[in-house]
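Example complex used in Figure S2.
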Amino acid sequence: MRFLVFIILCVVFIACDAGLAPPSPVELGFGGTVYFAPGSWPADSLISLWIFASQVYPLDSSKVYAGLFGNPVTIFLYPSITSSLPFYVDSLEYSFPLRPGIYKYIGVIQQKDSDLQGLGIRVFKVVGFYQDPADPSLPGFVEANDSVQVKGININVDFNNPPPQPF
Amino acid sequence: MKKIIFNIALLLVFHVSIAQTNRGSVGGIVTDVKSQEPLAGVNVLLRGTVRGTTTDAQGMYLLKGIPAGTYDLSFSLIGYTARTINKLSIQPDSAINLDVSLAQAPIQTEQVVVTAGRREQSLRDVPVSVSTVTSKMIADRLSVTLDDAIRYVPGVNMMADQVNIRGSSGYSRSVGSRVLVLIDGLPFLTGDTGEINWETFPMFQIDRIEIVKGAGSALYGSSALGGVINVITKDISQSPEIRFKLFSGIYDKPVYNKWDWSSSPRFNSGGYLSYSNRTGSFGYLLSVSRTVDESYRENDVYHRWGLYSKLSYDFSQFQDLTLTFNFQWRNHGNYFWWKSLDEPTRPADSQLNGNVDSHRGYASLAYKNVLSDVFFYSLKAIYCSNFWQDDSSGRVNNTSSSHLTQLEAQATYTTSSSNVLTFGAAGNYDRVISDIFGSHPGIGAAVFAQDEFTPFQSLKLTAGVRYDWQRIWKEIFTSPASVSPSQLNPKIGLVYTFDPITTFRASYGQGFRYPSISELFTSVSTGVSQISIVPNDTLKPERSTSFEIGVSRWLADNFFLDLAIFQSSYYDLIEAGVNPNRFEIIFSNVTRARIRGLEAGLKTNWLNRMISADFSYTYIDPVDLSNNSVLRFRSRNLFYASITGNYRQLRAEVNFRYVSRVEAIDENLVRLAPIVDGDQRVECKVVDAGISYNLLGIGLPFSVGLTVKNLTNYYYVELIGNLAPLRTYYLSIEGSL
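Predicted assembly (904 residues):
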């Protein structure tokens, strides 16, 4: 009988928290502003536009595929894979919630064509990236944590002068 | 060859002729020795023969046509000590009246099961782990659907609508079940997606559910990768019987205001009514059910109507025919996953207006002929129909229908007192018409055999094998067929009774699953970033092997322990993956996995059986050998506890289940769907409780009950993006006239 009482007490102890709860309102990851060069927006060839954050750098085609669709995922898109940043704006403030970790390559990517199956990765073009403050020719890295959002991750985009493509 | 056929024919004629003369019968009422109440569902078996029956709701049984001789007659029921009447003498043309009383047992082990060996066997004689859920447990726990009824079975856990037996299934996006579900021994999966329709089973007519763990394709064919669930329906009552059940539940409000989406209370209610009778050789049962679940989530409402009937005709005491018909109409909201963890009781915006209409059911025919005390055969056929269509804002999007017909012939031949041979053949024809999966016919065939040999009383050996063949055509029979390799699956088993309180068992079996038509031929745009799901008709069958060693032992009069260690290996598991070069999703054979584990079960009771308790713990180590990682959608630890108290007409029950947090999920599913906060999950720690009072003591033939599910209002997900039910209070009334 004492065994039974012990089990009941264990069950009560184990079952006394509430489980899932609404997520914390604090936005983590990082944030900043995307600045678009005046007059550089293309008239067409704009299907989607995202901010991306990659834990892997340098990238090639296979790493992009693995990062987006592999397990674990190492390349994340903002706002989401199904929705785009707004077009034809001068600048855009953003807040990119991300799990803690080091993000080595952050930028803005444009989808130029809807023929994904025919053109493959060639439908995408990196149009700007977060620069290393010490050497602007290189990507800067961001370490996201679980206590405070990293701010000031600004990105300049010039559709007419895109940076070197990673793939 | 002609000589052999002639000899077999002579044998059958001889047995039939013997069967016509020198017969007697035995019948009576089985009661509880203490309360003197009749006991329903008692297995009555004439040992050494294939003759047996079960008692009806009034506790009555009748065995007719018994050849004159001396027999041992056994009576067994879960929760009662089995009893055997030895040396019962049957005289020609005599009718023996034999009333029997059974005493409640501390723990029962003499339970009879039919699934492990395709014939009636004592649970102690089967070499694999088998669990049973009785109709009483279904009623006491107020289980409305089949998946709800098996949530406390050791080693079993549900992931939304997919069942895992010892981690076998994971989550395969509602296509292709890795556990085979049978209705009265016949496969009952949908023809298009190969999944289980949990709601279609006639819950009010279930006698018991048997769950066999480990690969079982050597007896049952495709889909028995991780185990077999056999739903056995009630027999038709020997006398007029009306049964009814009404329940009504109300969902509690969530503690977080932002989760409370509805201003009005949400109810979950239903009713069942059935009538059965037997007139001479003809028996019939009619049943109707109606359930409405308004749900705790928006656009998740369920409306269901169910019709069920069973007709039987006894041509003689040796031949009977049973026709069963089951149909369910269902309409429900198209809730797939939550909007976010901020609003988990609301669906994603795209699912707000959708709903699904479905008509599902089956018709089956079973003929049994006992040719002699050592030989009988059965012929069975089942037609399963499945139609559904979904729409959003009144516009039909997709429709699919499947028509699956299966035939089976089986014979059991007791060649000697130490050897039983079971063999048979099966065939199926499948036809799918769908705007997602296309239109595809398919056919299959199989032969199987099993031999059970008892070299000496304490040792039982089993060996069996089954050969399966299947073809599915892309469009019509003249087009090239999707060639699935034929499958040959063996099984072997051993049971060693060390002493009267200790039994060892060991078994090895193989399983396989043919890819479903939906995995082979789905062609649809996901609407996500131009990504499409494309067909892959080169899929191979999934395969598995299972090995188990177990021991069961009475530790004391009120302690029964069962231990098992097991290992299952899985090959060519089918997963939906992204083909990045073409930006498409395709089903492929990608995963090689291994699951090792152990399972312990303990049954106890105290205070002269006023309090009884069942505990089980299952640990699994699920490894994805393809990339040396944890296999997705598996929980390592399952712990279930059930404590029941009985005092006179009062009964109280508390059930607790703990399922550890799923370690790995499909992150692509979360991203591509997309499911906001889809990675948010916790362990499951749920308490269900109920109390009921039987009013029979004051002359009213029914009981009333109060059940609270999820008593602590714990918030968790079984499947990513799906908040499990909140605390719900139910009132119920159930009885029979």
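The CA atoms of residues 658 and 685 of chain B lie 5 Å apart. The helical segments of chain B are 2-19, 135-140, 146-149, 217-220, 517-521, 667-672.
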